[in-house]
Structures are given as structure tokens and as C-alpha cells.
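note to self — DONT lose this again. spent like an hour looking for the file last time. sequence + predicted structure for the chain T wanted, 257 res
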Amino acid sequence: MTGVCAKSLCSVSYFNMIAVKNSGSPVSVSKARRWIMFDRIADTYDWINRCMTAGLDQRWRRHVARALNPSVKTVLDIASGTMDVALMIARVRPTIQKIVALDMAERMLAIGQSKCRKAGVHTIEAVVADVHDLPFEPQSFDAVTVAFGVRNFENLDRALSQIAMVLKTGGQLIILESCRPKNRIIAVCHRFFLRTWVRLIGGFFSGSTDSYTYLSDSIHTFSSPEDMMVRLKNAGFSSISYRYFMMQSVQCLYAIR
């Protein structure tokens, strides 16, 4: 892809704590532990997601794919994980020429690559890299998507600035993320759901209770759509809007660079 200069998955060893970074410096210990955690739960991640959302997560990902402008040809999917969103985009929008699936969790990307081979999808490239220091030239992509990943960014404002940098002028950003419902009664029920179903059931089937405790807590404390809109504006985005799914427990934000 023109303007893209990043190492592919096969050339980067995350377990040696080497990430693709413009500065060439290793990833911080706290960040490394976080993404090793995702690698630990990679094998059961998709299945548990389907169980926790009754399959609705795939409907939301389809919404993201369909919300992309018809003119989009290149997409960067950040925090791509096992490539659910990237694959959905490839299926729903076959005219898109190139999708870069970026994540710090190498095992998750490897599972995504296997899914691509089984589906016969050849337009997705896996890249291990840090969203806080994206290894792409400015204005490399027509659109950027992030599904259930921004709450794991160590420095959200820096990450949004990096996303704005790699987006072309007029490019789209679509963020799908969990959030705490505004309605107090729904919020209490949501918190109970996180503490029981997500933490206990997710931990039981993945064998990593600590991982799902982190995921549960990160959902409960993440920014509201209104706060995200302010952050996006400060990062240089415009035409910012949002909508809710699943009784205000999932937010989808749309912005233009």
C-alpha cells in the first residue's frame, strides 16, 4: 500500500517485547503485560464474545462495515484482535482494496490470519504495532475503525492524534466501544452483568479470571460518548456524532478528519 511502511506479523516477536515503533524503543512493561493478557485468552476470545452478547457483537461490527463511505478503498482496523471487524469489512465491502489489521497481541492476529485463510480473504494484512506510535506515513488511509479497543489505550489522546495523522483529509473514523449506561437502573444491572457473566463466566471458560476482571473494570470506567466527542474534537476531528446499542451499554462514534 502506498504510504504504508510497517513490519508484517511474521517479522515481529511480541513475546520478546519487540513492537513496531517509529522510535525503535521497546514497549513499556505495563503495556506489554496488557497485550500478553490478550494473547493468553486469544483461543476462546471469539466464542466468549458471542456468548456474552448473544451474538449481537457481530451485528454491531456489520454496522461499522456498512457505515464506511462507498469511496473508501483503504482501511486501518486498530485493535483488530482476531480480525472480526476486518473480516466483516472484507465481506460487506468487497470493493475495499486493502485492510490493515493492527494489534499488539500477536497470537490474536495469528488466529485472525487463520480465519482469513479459511474464508478465502486476501485483502487483509496483519501488523503488530502500537497505536500510540503508528508506523505509517501521514494520510495513508481512507478510514480507520476501532472496535472494543480504545478503552485499552494507555494514552487515549495521543492515540487519537496518531489516528488523525494517518487518516487522509476527509477520512472516516468509526469507534465501537462499551460504556456505562446513563440510566441508573440499567447501570446497576449492567454492573451486575459485568461482575458475574463477564468476569466469572469469561474467566472460567478462558482459564484467565484476571484477564476478564480487567476487561470488566475497563468497561465500567470508560469514557462517555460526550467525553469522547470532546477528545475527538481536540484531536482534530469534525462532524462528530454517536449512537447507542444494547440499552446504552455500547457506543458507536463517527468522526471525519
